[in-house]
TrEMBL record:
Keyword Transcription found: yes
Alphabetical list of SUPFAM superfamilies matching this protein: GAF domain-like
InterPro entries for this protein: GAF-like_dom_sf, WH-like_DNA-bd_sf
Entry keyword Transcription regulation: yes
Keyword vocabulary terms for this entry: Transcription, Transcription regulation
Name used for this protein in its record: ANTAR domain-containing protein
Lineage: superkingdom: Bacteria
Organism from which the protein derives: Geodermatophilus maliterrae
Length: 242
């Protein structure tokens, strides 16, 4: 049985208990983790270099790994988006190229290897499939041909499900729970824009600095800022102390 056939079967199986349209990315991530020799998978879209929108992860560890990368603003998945090329990174590669991300990754997750496969075809430049490996698995256990095949199948399914239908603003999977959570970051940036009279770029940098310094992730910090649990004065003090 081909990798394409096995992936289709895994996607169908995952729909049994996750039939809601907005959960399509989670189903696809879980199916990828089933048919590839990896420990987890995540799917994200990009609207710009700093606007990474997680759509779904196969498990909580994969979701945490994505959030850590977004929080520190560096890592193989972000670099793969910028270059448009697949990145295969063992732990030594992660430590050498993205030290802040490596520090957070090894202290908060068991993940020690990452493969990032940027979308091609209709969604080229707009997203990626990220694969996470925990020892004894490592990046050498994954055949890149199989990973690329699964990535293309994911793009095809997204493309087919995104066809316009009667007045809808976009595909249902853009409202995935992970995406809704990340949208709080954009809202918090706007809150800082107005409250501290700073640019969006500076607002994101300030949020990242505070999240990293307090051991939080950016999504959680954004929710706390919007709930007024973290005063603007505290964030502004961090900026003066930087």
């Amino acid at each position: 049985m081909s990798i394409t056939e096995r992936f289709a079967i895994a996607v169908a199986a995952s729909a049994v208990d996750m039939s809601d349209p907005e959960l399509l990315p989670v189903r696809l991530a879980r199916a990828a983790a089933v048919v590839l020799p990896v420990d987890g998978a995540g799917i994200s879209l990009f609207f710009s270099t700093d606007r990474r929108l997680p759509l779904g992860a196969s498990d909580e560890v994969s979701a945490v790994a994505e959030r850590l990368q977004f929080t520190v603003g560096e890592g193989p998945c972000l670099s793969a988006h910028v270059s448009g090329q697949s990145i295969v990174a063992e732990e030594a590669d992660i430590e050498a190229s993205w030290p802040a991300f490596h520090d957070a990754l090894v202290t908060q997750t068991p993940v020690r290897g990452i493969i990032s496969m940027p979308f091609q075809d209709e969604l080229r430049g707009y997203g990626a499939l990220d694969l996470y490996l925990v020892p004894p698995h490592d990046v050498r256990t994954v055949t890149l041909y199989d990973a690329l095949t699964v990535t293309r199948e994911i793009v095809s399914l997204f493309h087919r499900s995104a066809r316009p239908a009667g007045g809808e603003d976009g595909p249902a999977w853009l409202g995935a729970p992970a995406a809704e959570r990340r949208s709080l970051v954009w809202q918090a940036m706007g809150f800082l824009n107005a409250g501290l009279d700073i640019t969006s770029e500076d607002a994101l940098a300030l949020l990242r600095s505070h999240a990293y310094g307090t051991g939080s992730d950016l999504d959680d910090l954004a929710a706390r800022v919007l709930a007024r649990e973290v005063p603007l004065e505290e964030l502004a003090y961090d900026d003066r102390s930087a």
